[in-house]
Amino acid sequence: MQDHHNHSTEINDLNQRFLIGIALNIVFVLVEVGSGFYYNSLALLSDAGHNLSDVVSLLLALLAFRLAKVKPDSKYTYGYRKTTILVSLLNAILLVFAMGAIVWESMERFKNPAQTSGNPIAIIAGVGIVINALTAWMFLKNKDQDLNVKGAYLHMLSDALVSLGVLVAGLVISYTQWYWLDGGVSIVIAIVVLYSTWDLLKKSFNLSIDAVPDGIELESLKVEMERISGVLEIHHIHIWAISTTLNSFTAHVKVQNYTSWKDILRIKKNIRHILHHQNIQHSTIEFEVVDENCDEVNNQI
Questions:
Q1: Residue 213 placed within a domain
Q2: Which of 153, 204, 223, 251: CA 20 to 30 A from 133?
Q3: Do 72 and 165 fall into the same domain?
Q4: Last residue of a domain, one of 175, 208, 241
């Protein structure tokens, strides 16, 4: 009962952190957009575009987070948990396109620099460092428990580093009038963000096509399970992600013809114990005897 209470408290706490992060970043985006146009700074506008994509990312992650809590029914037997993976993939794709647009515009600005004011840019970027670092800190605790939370953490952490770059550029511009730095920093921003997004994009895509989740080695898992006393062979193995936090497993387990029901239960318990330590929470195991012909294996399903 205590564990359930702690889990519910953690869910509510994470929900509040999403809402706070969204509110903080919306306010900062509005400040950056207004300041970017007023001071004619592409670095601020590009950072605002990135932060806006993060607001959308946080909103979608919050939506997926809530949908994942919807109970399964007769039509959606896993509930809406898969939406957490689809949202993570969508966020990564949107971010890649947004950064591509920024690189295109930055190249033009880099070739044809426009005058801008360095000190205000540095001040606004300094505020951005505080807001982004604070938002990243809010997701630090749960970043390894969910891909969307990890995505939010990485986005906010990269934003803090990007804002640091904008701050440095603003200070340099104010003393040197090197206006080309405004476009140059925008290009660096895009490269940093794309680099930090690549891993998220790859993992999200793999999970969306039901690839084996990262950290799980199918062959070594098969070898370990076949060491269980009474198990002759394990085949027709499938491992995939139900959501960004839950993994599923199905397999056929071949045993001797005379294997007792008691031994079946023991083998099943041992298999599930191994799966639990591999972060696989849901499993379906079908037992076969030696004389049984498995059509699914023969058809390579």
A1: no
A2: 204
A3: yes
A4: 208
- 156 and 31, same structural domain? yes
| 110 and 257 together in one domain | no
Separation of CA 75 from chain center: 27
Is the domain of 130 the same as that of 11? yes
- CATH code where residue 17 lies: 1.20.1510.10
Instruction: Output the CA–CA distances (angstroms, integers) from residue 160 to 79, 163, 165, 174, in the order listed.
Output: 35, 5, 9, 21
Residues 12 and 156 in one domain: yes
> What are the tens digits of pLDDT across the range 195-243?
777 887 888 899 999 999 988 999 999 999 999 999 999 999 999 999 8
CB atoms within 10 A of CB 232: 13
Number of domains in the chain: 2
Which pTM does this prediction carry?
Answer: 0.71
* 220: exposed, middle or buried (Cβ count in 10 Å: 0-12, 13-18, 19+): exposed
Range of the domain at 260: 218-298
- Taking the CA of residue 298 as centre, how many other CA atoms within 13 Å lie in the half-sphere pointing to its CB? 4
Q: What is the mean pLDDT of residues 50-67?
A: 78
Strand order through the sheet with 233-241:
233-241, 247-255, 282-289
Q: Note whether 65 and 180 are same-domain residues.
A: yes
291: left (phi over 0), alpha (psi -120 to 50) or beta: alpha
Which are the contacts of 113, defined by CB distance < 8 A and separation ≥ 6? 179, 180, 182, 183
Residue 176 lies in a domain: yes
Distance between CA atoms of residues 141 and 156, nearest Å: 14
The DSSP secondary-structure symbol of 250 reads E
On the question of pLDDT at 100 being above 70, the answer is: yes
Q: What is the C-alpha separation between 22 and 35, in angstroms, rounded?
A: 20
